[in-house]
Write a structure and sequence with these properties.
single chain; 263 residues; 8 helices; alpha+beta; 7-stranded mixed β-sheet
Length: 263
Amino acid sequence: MENQHIIVRVATPDDIHYSKTITDEMESSAKARGTGIAKRSPSYVELKMQEGKAVIALTDKGDWVGFCYIEAWGHDKFVANSGLIVNPAFRGHGVAKSIKKKIFELSRQKYPDSKIFGLTTGLAVMKINSELGYEPVTYSELTDDEEFWKGCRSCVNFDILTAKNRKNCLCTAMLYDPTEKLKEAEEKAMAAKMEAEAAEAEVQKLKMSVASNGKFHHEKKRRGFKGNIKLYERWLRFKRFVLLNNSKKEGGAAGARKKFLFF
């Protein structure tokens, strides 16, 4: 892998000659882990490439490095980033993370309103999913599309899944809900706005206190400056301006008194 540049991009029909290599590695990797994934044929992988619903990683010399594809379920209400696989010769170098990020971006682009979910037994994949905003959920929160669950029949753990009435298995279910993420972003923005308004109100209060008698009162309770350095800097400049002006005025008055007494 040394001195080889890896390109992670959306797969195209020109990449279909990699399909057999990809599906063979998917199968052998599942066997090596002693777990299972939904088995896919080369023709299925080729279809994903033709539809622009897959991401492939290659070296600048054209060597295959990794792959992942998108599947939509339940009338596009749910989307899964499936079949993540990395060439063993390139593992441990962040390739999986780059592919997951790219396929996640592609999913958001093609299905902006869909929930993105995944089932995995790999701790590394769980960590990557978590960084992308996925959260662990119960199986009941995933799609109820029978076609999706049929794909688990080729998994070595299918008997466990059926024995648990499809409520649990060895895989961990993770979900990214764009609606929930939007709510979280709005709540965060609102909280930031309220904090900024509180900080501004505190500054105005302190300005009025100084303007009334030219003295700065140290108040026991201070709020609003945390995380608002610019407001704090504005307040310091204003305080210096007022206090220095008052000092000059007092100095001038004192000078006048001395002059009067001297004469």
